[in-house]
């Protein structure tokens, strides 16, 4: 199980390039990827996104890629700047314009800058190596955070189980109290406790407040959660669904047996805390 929160970073260097990659992820309903760089990565952006999706299923992922050339690169095409300068002089002469040398140079330079349409193989290799190492580091971080979430959730599951045991221990006592109240009311009306009307009323009330099914389903949900906590892959949405079902069951139990309202409140509180944790699970 992974958290959606994590940080990964890596640096790759070769003879010509140094690439530093920093990846941060936080929780999100889907997968959102944001890429920033000091270099034009548009030719390979789709490949970068695909690689990230191979590692991550959910979360808002911010990627910062800083590229530093180790060898000086000429920002302009020298041959082109000379041709542009000559062309500007010819045009200026034809038009009868007098241009200063620095003006001609600035214009020629502006129209001679190199455009990076493709990345060199050396840069691509270094970039992908850096990105993959940063993703591996991010996964390590997310798993570590996921382990912390798992441990906290297991504590809360044990608390819920303890509360359920308390309900089961006291359930019969509560049911007997309710049964005795019916009998006392019958006596006030002059009916013996063996009267069929009294027995029918007791049977009816006890059937309406029977919570065995709710307890059984809640226990089943808890077992499902335990299983998911030990699973790999995307389990966050599944956990959220199970918790919603468990919340519905405990509501029903509370409505049937108001005598356990305090325990029900405690269980609901633990379920809400579990939901908060699950919101950060991939």
TrEMBL record:
Q: Which residues form a coiled coil?
A: 150-180
One Pfam short name: YicC-like_C
* Highest taxon of the lineage: Bacteria
Q: Print the keywords alphabetically.
A: Coiled coil, Endonuclease, Hydrolase, Nuclease
Q: Which residues form the Endoribonuclease YicC-like N-terminal domain?
A: 1-150
Give one GO term, molecular function aspect: hydrolase activity
Keyword Nuclease among record annotations: yes
Q: Spell out the family assignment given in the record's similarity comment.
A: Belongs to the YicC/YloC family.
What is the name attached to this protein's record?
A: TIGR00255 family protein
The organism named in the record is Hydrogenobacter hydrogenophilus
Lineage of the species this protein comes from: Bacteria, Pseudomonadati, Aquificota, Aquificia, Aquificales
